Amino acid sequence: MQFTAQIIAQHLGGIVEGNAEVTVSDFSKIDEGRPGTITFLSNPQYTRYIYDTQASIVIVRKDFVAEQPVAATLIRVENPYVALSSLLSLVSQYIKPEPKGIEMPCRIAEGVEISDDCYVGAFAYIGAGAQIGNRVKIYPQVYVGPGVIIGDDTTLYPGVKVYYNCRIGNRCTIHSGAVIGADGFGFAPDAQGVFHKIEQIGNVIIEDDVEIGANTTIDRSTMGSTRIGHGVKLDNLIQVGHNCEVGHDTVMAAQAGVAGSCKVGSNCIVGGQAGLSGHITIGDRTTIGPQTGVPKDTPAGSRIMGSPAMPWGEFGRMAALLKRLPDIAKTVARLEKENSKE
Fold it and tell me: pTM for this structure?
């Protein structure tokens, strides 16, 4: 399948600079560009590659100014990264498999209605009272518990487990191995130190347009709901504890952990391996660096890093000083030695 620069530009709302009839049939990275491929330039650190890339088309910002001749055809857009996302979505419609129908063997409880435009893969299980929306894709070995509600155009990839009474919105994507609605980590010790389970009788509510990565787990609440706001994107291997709330359009990278009853605001960015303590509130638009430990409430708009967390700039200064500690230690030892002789 081939596309001309002109067709791509029309789809992206961009402007062609160069040969509008050049065709491409694949994607490439700008530093590994090949003839017949399209690439993009978003990060200024990669600008040097545009002058030597062999890619036929490069998507660039509208205000990009070339300092040397560029052999590739350029498509100028407002945001190259967003444009690439749009283009990949277009291509995926042609190359991504679109299974439909009900494969056997699978188990669908009596009374559960599955529309003709849905897909249910082999060895899937759908429990009593579940409600499945239109154009839903439930891949093989998925478990959908009793009373679960799944909205329109949602996809559950192989091995996803959704416990009873949980709710998943429209246009969500949940990747393989994710577990939605397992019991929260709640135990109460008695006088002898024996831990007794606190039953978790709530559920998980996932709003519209959420994507959840492989092997991520979201625990059901003790009471009420653990809630994931609309537009949230969770990477692989993330733990969200019981009674947590994650605000709309927040993103979290792999191996982040959110302890129980933590409230994460909207439009936040949480780096990989960050840990958020329980019963704290993270303000809207907060950026949390990788491997950050957050023990207390964070105001809206904060940029924090380190463990325990501190303002981004303060952490940078401390990290720079840390590199000098061996030399500082030698200087202190020398001064102490000189002072002891006086």
Answer: 0.86
